[in-house]
Amino acid sequence: MIKSEKIYYDEPYRKKIEAKIIEIDKNGIILDRTIAYAEGGGQESDRGWIIKDGKKYEFFDVQKKPGRTIFLDDFPTITVENAIVHYLDENVIKEFDIGDIIEVEIDTKRRAKLSISHSVIHIVLMGVEKLYGGLENKIYGAKIKEDGARLDFRTTLKFSQEEIKKIQDYANFVIASSKDIKVYPHQKEKEALYWELDWYKCPCGGTHIDNTSYIKNITVKRKNLGKNGQRISATFEYNDLFQEKFYE
User: Which domain holds residue 196?
Assistant: First the structure.
């Protein structure tokens, strides 16, 4: 089975690496290793550039191909050891051949925003769990974008504006405390990752920041999704301090 080594697990702040093309798939290329995060868990993919002979070609999407499915008693079912496809414009794919040695470089500002956004929605969920407890088990949808994130809950509960303010106040209290965020693997599977902050831990394989001090001013909103659904969304003020952590 063809698979790509996911370098961002071990080197989350690496912005450029050398890799080899091992397969060309329609309008995408598969590399033997990559630092580009493939869309998953609601988080949009990285974007960036494939560099060959000094020339940059933009990739606009990154997706996983089917991999090995893992079943653990204490972790959600996920696939690991995937091949990762980097999609390029159909007019430039002909510039590449299997076996080419190239460089892959990510857009670090986009990665920084996505990483902040993903950690923000976890912190907001902490506030939800403080208020209700157990509502995380009713999440059926998520979307993490550069400018904010949302969670959709299957519930008959209706979040009031007062409750939303309590969640928002809690989230901003957490980020003001400059707390460390931990991301670490399950003892049995390297690609099965946990996100942990204070008392809260959850399975998550997305990209994240390592301290809450990189987040500024979280704003939380709600939206009714019919009688059995609620949406909570979060935005934040961006600063470029986290982006400065990336290196070649």
Answer: 110-245
What is the distance between the alpha carbons of residues 57 and 62, in angstroms, rounded to a whole number? Answer: 14
Of 47, 78, 106, which one is at a domain's C-terminal end?
Answer: 106
CA distances from 235 to 155, 194, 220, 247 (A): 23, 23, 7, 27
> Does the pTM of the predicted model rise above 0.90?
yes
CATH number at residue 64: 2.40.30.130
Per-residue model confidence as pLDDT tens for the chain (248 residues): 789 999 999 999 999 999 999 999 889 999 999 999 999 999 999 999 999 999 999 999 999 999 999 999 889 999 999 999 999 999 999 999 999 999 999 999 999 999 999 999 999 999 999 988 888 889 999 999 999 999 999 998 888 999 999 999 999 999 999 999 999 999 999 999 999 999 999 999 999 999 999 999 999 999 999 888 999 999 999 989 999 999 98
- Provide Rg for the chain, Cα atoms: 19
